[in-house]
Amino acid sequence: MKKRILIYSTFLIILFSATTLAAEYQIVGGYYYLDLDPEINDYIQEYNHSIDNIIEFDESLGYSFNKKVIDPLDQIEDSNGYYIGISTTRNNLLITAQYEEFSNEDNASVYTKWTDPNNNNGTTVVKLNNKLKIQGIYGELGKKLNNYLQLTGGIGYYTGKINNEYYINISNSTNRDVNNDSDLEGELGFKIGSNFHYSLTDNLNFLCNISYRYLKMDLEENIREDNIEISELDLSGFETRVGFTYNF
User: Fold this and answer.
1) Which of 84, 97, 140, 213 is the most exposed place for a label (fewest CB within 10 A)?
2) Which numeric CATH code is attached to 2-247?
3) Could you give phi then psi for residue 9, rounded to 5 degrees?
4) Which residues does UniProt assign to the signal peptide (predicted)?
């Protein structure tokens, strides 16, 4: 934790040193949407298949199911986030330093009523919650093309965490409640894209950015599920940012 705080602080000092030299600056902030397809989707797919396989195996042992309600985990295809920071213009370059964060959360559940080969009735309840959260400090340069468009590119330092919670109850006799955290090691990420900038008032401006993000993060502890082992998450993809800037 101390190492992360030191890295974040150093990164902020470097980024903001450029902005404090200018007399005029802007507060920037808004929402962004990310396109994702991380390797953890292989784990999610394996989990969904395992539920079907377990039910089929129980049926082969003579279990009969009177009720089956299965809500599978969804694949991680996108994420939502926000950003806030400060920017200034020097030598016809827009310099921006910002904090950004994005996350994804999904729930799954299984509820069954069954009768075993000895005609004993029972229930099985499974609940699962997965959370992915990434945060980082990002610095960007923008080159003005005209009054509305800019080419942009930048570098950021990111950390994150995956949280996995699951609960199992079988006929009120077998209980298991587990909460696992897997930290993502700090990594550098890169973006390249373009800004659309439109003035609403003398001080308030609308901003839309479309970028491609390159970001790969190693897990401090690998995720294992049967024949699947995940040691890295590829969080690269396209992102769209929509927000506002306010001139001071």
Assistant:
1) 84
2) 2.40.160.20
3) -65, -45
4) 1-22
